[in-house]
Amino acid sequence: GHDYVVFFRGCLPCCTVILLVLFELALAQYEHLDTPRIQLRLAGDKRKHNEGRVEVFYNNEWGTVCDDDFTIHAAQVVCRELGYLEAISWSPSSKYGKGQGPIWFDNLHCTGKEKTLALCPSNGIGVSDCKHSEDVGVVCSDKRIPGFKFVNTLPNHNLDIQVEDVRIRAILSSYRKRIPVTEGYVEVKDGGKWKQICNTEWTQLDSRVICGMFGFPGERKYNARVYKMFARRRKPTYWDYAVNCTGNEAHLSSCKLGQASSLKLNGTCAGGLPVVVSCVPGRDFAPTSMTGFRKAFRQEQPLVRLRGGAIVGEGRVEVLKNGEWGTICDDSWSLLSATVVCRELGFGTAIEALSGGRLGQGMGPVHMNEVQCTGFEKSITECVFNKEALGCSHEEDAAVRCNVPSMGFQQSLRLSGGRNPYEGRVEVLVERNGSLVWGTVCSESWGTMEAMVVCRQLGLGFASNAFQETWYWPGEVSADNVVMSGVRCSGTEMSLSHCLHHGAHLSCAKGGGRNAAGVSCSETAPDLVLNPQVVEQTTYMEDRPMFMLQCAHEEDCLSSTANQVPANSYRRLLRFSSQIHNNGQSDFRPKAGRHSWVWHDCHRHYHSMEVFTLYDLFSLNGTKVAEGHKASFCLEDSECDEGIEKRYECANFGDQGITVGCWDTYRHDIDCQWVDITDIKPGDYIFQIVINPNYEVPESDYTNNILKCRCRYDGHRVWMYSCHNGKTSQLFVLVSHFNVDNQII
């Protein structure tokens, strides 16, 4: 033991206190020596890095923990031992799959304050009557313990290291100025210093994991000769460990770690060099040439897409099958399957596999269920899955969040003057006279699409408002401080600089002081989607006399030729119902407040949005032949999914909107729910409905705001068929495949 020498002056009670302290120190030291030395990891079919089956490494073998008597206190000990701030929850009955090997702990009774799971009272290590169907799992918080240092005490343990402790450092001058960085040394931060890894035990599978971590779908070969020359000029500082990955890991923290056998005592790498990786960026992140534009490639129709995500690399997973987009049920949805989707779409490994329709609910069929991937598939469609989706609803739609390359976009944009970090005046960092300065954006033509790009670029979610006046926010902004004008975005750009704008030749008549552009952002947004089946099933034709259409005529719901016809004439109307679902994550509310709604005396109702939907009829060559529009005289919850209560009702000047999980039905028999086809000839047409056409209200996905149908009119009857949501669908394929008899083939 240790000899403790204590110098003190005083009475007997002082001696007693000091003896008690010495006894506790000795007891703690004894307990530490007697405590089994274990290592923990989270494994199994997990959807995030900070969750999984609790596995224990002891006696050179990985095993599990039984769920008997397990509590949140035990989960707290597990999470803190792994470096997480706290435990969120725990799960019994092998939620993350059955483990293998011994069950090391059973009947754990932790207080939550133990420094290691091995200090919790239990039956004894290795003493258990459980089966692996009782393996316990935990979910830890995303936040790490500040300054947490992983201590390597066991061979072949897992390295618990966060991505901020790893980097790809560009070495060659040709790569230093490129964004993103795709090639260079793999470096690990250890003891405050960046160190290289000896490459004698490094494999292509290790490179695959590193590239995936940094948002790249794959790796490629590089010119090793150049790096040999560089290593001779500058002596590397090597890390003590070697990494051994299977290639399926979503993060370096899941790879095995061992002592680097090739390192000599003098710190050199015997017969080797520092590890270099060269990653292949996805199409959206490929470095552009000096000319500033990319070559145009012929793109095949993708089989997978993401919808409903706020930022690049996240969204609900949708799959194309038989010309129709559908979703994936979240049964057995895992980080491994999510990573296959991410790599297929040109991103890196998956950060998270989301379930329960977390990023909004889709429409149409559920194409895949119980997806099981090996991790090396080129497409999610190559994975094993159950074609039967019985019991699956869109409430179980699977989604992903992927690692994407760091492009540095956030450093060139900021919000100022707002009441919180999610709102403010938009300011852009630009170069002026050889120095970088912050300036404002002209608000002329500034709208929802531009605000969407700003919120995405800053990682703040969706736009909730686009402001053309920001004088009420604090901060001195001069009218001549405008650095960007004429901004026009499609809404899908990753950076405001990617949008069309005036460049160096600024033009802003209003000035950029009081009228500088501003935004407010939100983590959630609504998503309106039309039900195509309802349109098909309710379409019919009606001849209606003009004297019954006076109110509709006042609201411009008839074609222009109705202005010159007598009151006893008839108008031929193409009538239908439209059922508009809110499948997003927040309620759809009209942009205008109740105080500014417009009263229409003829119909005796308020309009909260003057144009809520557009109805158009096109010839097969794309020429518009008839049109209609619908003002939102009543946005309300007609019906809701089970368990969801209606919140909006128009009666008695009530609040207008559509609740998440509810739908608003515009019946075929109400005014303006039609297209006036009096003047068109019999034939085949394309019918189109567009919701929220002017993007007045921000949504998470505008691509599904369009519905297109085939329409046949023979002069006496009308048919609507092949209705599909989205800007592109099999409809256009159908239009281009006619035989001589004008029949679809």
What is the topological layout?
Elements: H1 12-34, E1 39-43, E2 51-58, E3 61-65, H2 72-81, E4 87-91, E5 103-105, E6 137-140, E7 157-158, E8 166-169, H3 173-176, E9 183-190, E10 193-196, H4 204-213, E11 218-219, H5 224-233, E12 241-244, E13 256-259, E14 276-280, E15 304-307, E16 314-321, E17 324-328, H6 335-344, E18 350-354, E19 366-372, E20 384-386, E21 399-402, E22 413-416, E23 423-432, E24 435-441, H7 448-457, E25 462-467, E26 482-484, E27 518-522, E28 528-530, H8 532-538, E29 540-545, H9 550-554, E30 570-575, E31 578-582, E32 598-600, E33 605-607, E34 613-618, E35 624-630, E36 639-640, E37 662-666, E38 674-676, E39 683-691, E40 706-713, E41 718-725, H10 730-735
Parallel strand pairs: 3-5, 17-19, 24-26
Antiparallel strand pairs: 1-2, 2-3, 2-6, 4-6, 7-13, 8-9, 9-10, 9-14, 11-14, 12-13, 15-16, 16-17, 16-21, 18-21, 19-20, 22-23, 23-24, 23-27, 25-27, 28-31, 29-30, 30-38, 31-37, 32-33, 34-35, 34-39, 36-37, 39-40, 40-41
Main location: nucleus
Subcellular location: Chromosome; Endoplasmic reticulum; Nucleus; Secreted, Extracellular space, Extracellular matrix, Basement membrane
Protein name: Lysyl oxidase homolog
